[in-house]
Design brief:
The structure holds two protein chains of two kinds. By secondary structure, chain A is mainly α. Chain A has 14 helices and three strands. In chain A, strands 1-3-2 form a three-stranded mixed sheet. Chain B is α+β, with helices and mostly antiparallel strands. Chain B has five helices and seven strands. The N terminus of chain B is likely disordered. Classes of the chains: A mainly alpha, B alpha+beta. Chains A and B meet through helix 3, helix 4, strand 1, helix 9 and helix 10 of A and helix 1, strand 7, helix 2, helix 3 and helix 4 of B.
Chain lengths: 278, 158
């Protein structure tokens, strides 16, 4: 009886398989691809995340090098590292760089590499403002905003198999494509909700680190006061919600935290001193 | 230069009166605090001149008098056309970089516009430099202590 049942089910499943063997579709291969996509998504572990982020960072440095001022670079690293220590990913290999460019912008790449342009730094008045901007960028790393966007883009552009070989072979052509795609993302921007989340949580991180929580809103207000037609703002405005809208959202959701931590230090003097140290 | 810096530090955050307006009907307060006396009631879009910021408050000059409004209720007039170098420490940077004026050295094809980012090639030398500037966590902690920054627990908003 049992044997008959087994045989019957075997025949049944063979029939099913036969039915699925439609012209031009190799079901097994299709299933493999689906599996690879699923695997690839899960397989971007922390070391991979860091490696992708560094490759993207290297390209961004190809677009604009670092400001040749070691004192300034170390200063920004100290501020950033202190902020990062207050987060749920305190031990990533965090590194921060000031890019030699007059445009106003900042970038976070996966795994803890963060850039701010000289143009944006010049608009700031104190360390709390710098902390607010770095806090915003740190949230992009914590929440893997860019990594998720890269993954999503890669699945469409490279398909599942391309993505797994891009992860496996760091010198291969698929890898190049993945990093090019990851770099290009900085010209298109993230979802608006990611940016607004980075604003809210960035304010919290600056407050945790002991800074005046109004640093980020102050910078946003400076940007809001600038002429939107200024070409130095073009890419930043294209890839972010308007400063006025970001200020509105912070006002609605963060007024309490902002006010509770508004009397913490701003460190204007240290900022100005470091900003021109050689 | 030192004296110049010292002078700069005495300036309020907003060095000059900047034209702005309030985004909603707002009480103009005598002091930068929500329980302070009301100087006047400003209607939505009332024009003001922003003078200085203190915590979450900005001192403004309005038709109804001078006082404080919530910093987040202010939007600056877009009419305030681009004033390159007018805010922040631009002038210091410029002086530090070139010694005299803000003339910028052209960097050829490099840049941070969309097209230049898309076409950027890897720059491993700069990446190595970047890594050499990274701060150890312990060093960052003593840096924070020097600035009298104290870590404090703050929950993320829901």
């Amino acid at each position: 009886m049992r044997v008959w049942l087994l045989l019957a089910s075997l025949v049944f499943s063979l029939n099913c398989a036969a039915q699925f063997r439609l012209p031009n579709i190799d079901l097994n291969k299709a299933l493999d691809t689906v599996k690879n996509v699923g695997k690839a998504v899960k397989e971007i572990d922390e070391p991979e995340e860091i490696a992708i982020g560094r490759d993207v960072a290297s390209r961004l440095l190809g677009a604009a090098p670092l400001v040749p001022n070691p004192g300034l670079q170390r200063y920004v690293n100290n501020v950033g590292r202190w902020l990062a220590a207050q987060t749920e990913r305190p031990d990533l290999p965090w590194q921060f760089g000031v890019l030699e460019h007059g445009n106003v912008n900042a970038f976070a790449t996966p795994g803890g590499t963060i850039f701010i342009t000289r143009g944006l730094l010049e608009k700031m008045r104190n360390e709390a403002e710098l902390a607010g901007v770095l806090g915003h960028e740190i949230v992009h790393v914590l929440k893997k905003h860019h990594l998720k966007a890269i993954q999503k883009g890669a699945q469409t552009a490279l398909a599942g198999e391309g993505l797994s070989s891009a992860l496996k072979d760091r010198a291969g052509p698929a890898r190049d494509k993945l990093i090019a795609l990851g770099t290009e993302m900085y010209t298109r921007g993230l979802d608006k909700s990611d940016e607004l989340e980075a604003d809210r949580l960035g304010v919290v991180i600056a407050a945790r680190a002991g800074y005046d929580a109004y640093g980020l809103p102050s910078v946003l207000q400076t940007l809001q006061a600038m002429n939107a037609q200024d070409s130095a703002l073009a890419l930043m405005f294209k890839t972010h919600p308007a400063p006025g809208e970001r200020l509105d959202t912070l006002g609605q959701k963060m007024q309490g935290i902002l006010d509770t931590y508004s009397a913490q230090p701003q460190l204007g003097e240290r900022f100005l001193k470091q900003a021109q140290r050689r | 230069m030192k004296r110049f810096l010292g002078l700069l530090l005495l300036l309020p955050a907003l060095a000059l009166a900047e034209p702005a307006s309030v985004i909603k009907a707002t009480e103009l307060k005598k002091e930068p605090a929500s329980d302070a006396d009301i100087v006047a009631n400003l209607p939505e879009n009332a024009p003001v001149e922003a003078l200085e910021r203190k915590g979450g408050w900005t001192r403004v000059k309005a038709a109804g008098g001078e006082g404080w409004v919530r910093m987040l209720s202010l939007r600056y007039g877009a009419a305030a056309a681009a004033k390159p170098g007018a805010s922040g420490v631009t002038q210091l940077f410029n002086a530090a970089r070139t010694g005299t004026s803000g003339t910028q050295v052209t960097t050829g094809v490099r840049g941070l516009d969309a097209e230049q980012i898309v076409n950027a090639q890897p720059n491993p030398n700069e990446l190595a430099k970047l890594q050499s500037f990274a701060a150890e966590r312990a060093a960052a902690e003593s840096f924070a202590a020097q600035g009298k920054l104290a870590a404090t627990p703050v929950d993320y908003p829901k």
